[in-house]
Write a structure and sequence with these properties.
CATH superfamily of the largest domain: L-amino peptidase D-ALA esterase/amidase
Shape: globular
Radius of gyration: 22 Å
Order of helices and strands: EEEHEHEHHEEEHEHEHHHEEEHEEH
Structural class: alpha+beta
Strand content: 25-35%
Distance between the termini: 27 Å
Number of strands: 15
CATH architecture of the largest domain: 4-Layer Sandwich
Length: about 425
C-alpha cells in the first residue's frame, strides 16, 4: 500500500482536487512522446502512453514563490524560471512541466526551456515571463522540442477545473502512484483552499527543495510573504526527506496564490499568516510523506521524530542523520530492530547533545517497543519487535535531552528493487 495515513488538524479539512482545489485554477496533461515508446511498429498501448507533459493555469495573474535545488549542476528550466519570476516581481499565470527528460547539461537547454514558455504564453495569450517551466527525467539527453510544440495546443484545449489528476500523472517518472493533497481552511471569514501535486521516487536528498512540487491557493497573500512561508515550511518538510542520499539537479517547489478567496491580503506577520503557514505545512508535510513512501523500490515509510533538543537546528540535524542511514534503511526492510544503527547515526550527526541521555522507541500500528534508554540498550521482545517492524509505516522516536525543540524527517527502507530500478534507469 502506497497511501499514507492522513493526520487530522483542527480547523483544516482534507478535500479532493489537488492543484485544482483552489478557485480559479485549471490543469491538464497529455502524452506527447518525449521519450519514444519501446513498442515496435507504432502499436502504442495505454500502458506505454502515460502522460508526459502537464500544465496548470490560473484564471488571473497570481503571486508566486519558489525554491530550488542547491546542486551546482542545475537544470535549464530552473534558470529560466528564476529569470521569469525576477522579471515579473514574483508573479505567474501558468506552469508547464514535462517528465522523461530533465533538460539538464545540454548546450541548448535554456533555449528549449524558454521555447516551452513562449509556446505556452502564445497559446494562452499571456507573457512568456508569466510562465514557470520545469522538467524531470534523464539527465544529459537533448530535449526534443517538436513533441512539445504539438502538445501545447492539446494541453490548452484540455484545461479543466477538474484536470488535476491528468497533470499529476504527467509529472511521474519512476513514481508508482500520483501524489496529490488539498486542504480547506478559513481566513478572515473567507473559505480558502490550498492544494498541490508532487513527483519523486529516487534521487531525493534535498537542500532547499526536492523533486518537482507545485501548489496553488486562492488565499490572498503577498508575493513576499508567500516566499517567506515557503522558505520556512520547506525547511521542516521537503528538506527533511531522504530516499537515497542523491540530490537532484532539477529540484523545485513553487506556489501560486491568485487571491480568489477574496480575504483581505495578508501583507505582514499576523494570526492570518500563521493560519496560512499551517495550511502550507499540512499540504507539504503530507506530500513529503508520499514521496518517502513511494521511494524507488520501497516497501515502508520511515518517520524519525526527534525531541528534547536545545534548538530546531539540532533536532533537524539528528532526524536527518538517522533517516538517511542506509544501514538503518536496510534493517527496516528486514524488520530487524537493530537499534544500534539508530545510535550510530545519532552519534555522527553534526550537532551537540549528551549521548548518555538518548532514548529510542520504535512503533507502528502494530505496537511499540522501547529499545534504548540513557544511551544504552534495554531488554525487549524480538518477536514483538518483528511484528512492529513488519508494518508499512514505521516511526522511530528519539529523545536527546530535555530541550523544548523537536523535528521530524521522512524516508523509506532500502530494498533489492532500488538497485534493479537504477541499474537500467535509462532503458
Amino acid at each position: 500500500m502506497k497511501e499514507i495515513t492522513l493526520i487530522p488538524f483542527e480547523g483544516y479539512k482534507y478535500i479532493e482536487g489537488g492543484v485544482c482545489a483552489a478557485k480559479g485554477f485549471k490543469a491538464s496533461g497529455t502524452y506527447c512522446g518525449i521519450k519514444k515508446s519501446d513498442i515496435p511498429d507504432g502499436n502504442e498501448s495505454p500502458i506505454k502512453m502515460k502522460n508526459d507533459i502537464g500544465m496548470v493555469v490560473s484564471d488571473t495573474l497570481a503571486n508566486a514563490a519558489a525554491v530550488y535545488t542547491q546542486n551546482k549542476v542545475k537544470g535549464a528550466p530552473i534558470t529560466v524560471t528564476k529569470q521569469n519570476l525576477n522579471a515579473t516581481g514574483g508573479k505567474a499565470r501558468a506552469i508547464i512541466v514535462n517528465s522523461k527528460n530533465a533538460n539538464t547539461c545540454n548546450a541548448d537547454g535554456e533555449q528549449k526551456a524558454k521555447k516551452m514558455c513562449e509556446l505556452t504564453a502564445n497559446a494562452l495569450g499571456i507573457k512568456a515571463e508569466e510562465v514557470i517551466v520545469a522538467s524531470t527525467g534523464v539527465i544529459g539527453q537533448i530535449l526534443p522540442i517538436e513533441p512539445i510544440e504539438k502538445a501545447v495546443p492539446v494541453l490548452v484545449k484540455g484545461l479543466d477545473y477538474n484536470g488535476n489528476e491528468q497533470a499529476a500523472t504527467a509529472i511521474m517518472t519512476t513514481d508508482t502512484v500520483k501524489k496529490e493533497i488539498a486542504v480547506e481552511f478559513e481566513i478572515g471569514g473567507k473559505v480558502c483552499h490550498l492544494g498541490g501535486m508532487g513527483k519523486g521516487s529516487g534521487m531525493i536528498h534535498p537542500n532547499m527543495a526536492t523533486t518537482l512540487n507545485f501548489y496553488t491557493t486562492d488565499c490572498n497573500i503577498s508575493s513576499a510573504l508567500l516566499q517567506s512561508a515557503l522558505d520556512e515550511i520547506v525547511k521542516v518538510t521537503y528538506n527533511c526527506l531522504s530516499v537515497d542520499g542523491d540530490q537532484s539537479t532539477n529540484d523545485m517547489v513553487c506556489v501560486l496564490a491568485n487571491g480568489e478567496a477574496e480575504n483581505d491580503e495578508i501583507k505582514e506577520n499576523s494570526a492570518e499568516f500563521e493560519v496560512f503557514k499551517k495550511a502550507l505545512y499540512i499540504a507539504m508535510m503530507n506530500i513529503t510523506k508520499m514521496l518517502a513512501k513511494d521511494g524507488e523500490g520501497a516497501t515502508k515509510l520511515l518517520e524519525v521524530k526527534v525531541s528534547g533538543a536545545d534548538s530546531l537546528e539540532t533536532a533537524i540535524t539528528v532526524a536527518k542523520s538517522v533517516v538517511g542511514s542506509n544501514l538503518l534503511k536496510c534493517a527496516v526492510f528486514g524488520a530487524d530492530a537493530n537499534w544500534g544503527r539508530v545510535l550510530c547515526a545519532v552519534g555522527y550527526a553534526d550537532a551537540e547533545f549528551d549521548i548518555n541521555k538518548v532514548d529510542v522507541k520504535m512503533s507502528s500500528k502494530a505496537g511499540s517497543i522501547h529499545v534504548c534508554e540513557n544511551g544504552a540498550g534495554i531488554e525487549f521482545s524480538e518477536e514483538t519487535a518483528k511484528t512492529v517492524l513488519l508494518e508499512d509505516e514505521i516511526t522511530i522516536d528519539i529523545s536527546i535531552g530535555s530541550g523544548e525543540f523537536s523535528a521530524a524527517a521522512w524516508g523509506c527502507d532500502l530494498t533489492y528493487d532500488y538497485v534493479k530500478i537504477n541499474g537500467d534507469y535509462r532503458s
